[in-house]
Design brief:
alpha/beta, two-stranded parallel sheet, 11 helices, about 40% helix
Amino acid sequence: MRAAKKKPFSEARKKSNYKTINNKEYNDILRKRGRIDFMIAPDLALGWYESYDNKYRKIGSQKRYSDKAILACLEIRYLFRLKLRQTQGFIDCLFEMSGVVMTCPDYSTLSRRSKDLAIGLRLNPDKEFEYVSVDSTGVQTYTGNEWLENKHGKSYKRRIWKKLHILIDEAGNILANEMSEHASDDRHHLKSLLKNIATQELLGDPGYDSEAIYQMLRKRGTKPTIRPPNQEPALATKAKGGECTERQTQALYQKTKGYNAWRVKIIMEGESW
């Protein structure tokens, strides 16, 4: 079905008291939004090409471009959403306009060497994060059923979608990600997401609440800060000796005191369960 035609002006815009009076300056600002300025760093040439010592040269063809050059080209590619051939021509054009005597790696080199770089060079394996956050979201995939539904207005019960699992640090940088089927459990992907990542604390929603997750995090030396679910099964089974586990203690505290009290206790006191 064709979507309904949008109204030319929203109600908020009709009732707005602001009126544009400096039309010339306003038009100049809108035009400058499409302006792209580039600054070539003077030290960009340092480390752009791979340097070898004749004493340690390997057998076969040698790398011409360094990892720094490959990463810089890939960043520009993802920033402007270019294809590999377009990326090569775009960067060569920048160097030519700037008068820099440098060349961009060809598209086949970018494709081949990007498999070995990715995020591995971005992360410091020796760095320990203060805390990381984990969550998942659904990504819809379109099939023939959705196309028929949009065209003919028929309804189909079966929906196909994927799950994207993301692990981020305190600055919002993506440390790890995985794609899975919609029926998969979020907890099954946490171990692989935390691989080669050292952190003091993990933040998660009730979807990551389980005894196995708590035990796995404690073995790694990571504090689990996972909101307990508001369900009775979390409190049903106690450990041997009648003592509550760490997970059951958190669930019991939230059930008796409330979520806000549990949150304040975790944030203000930093208590280790």
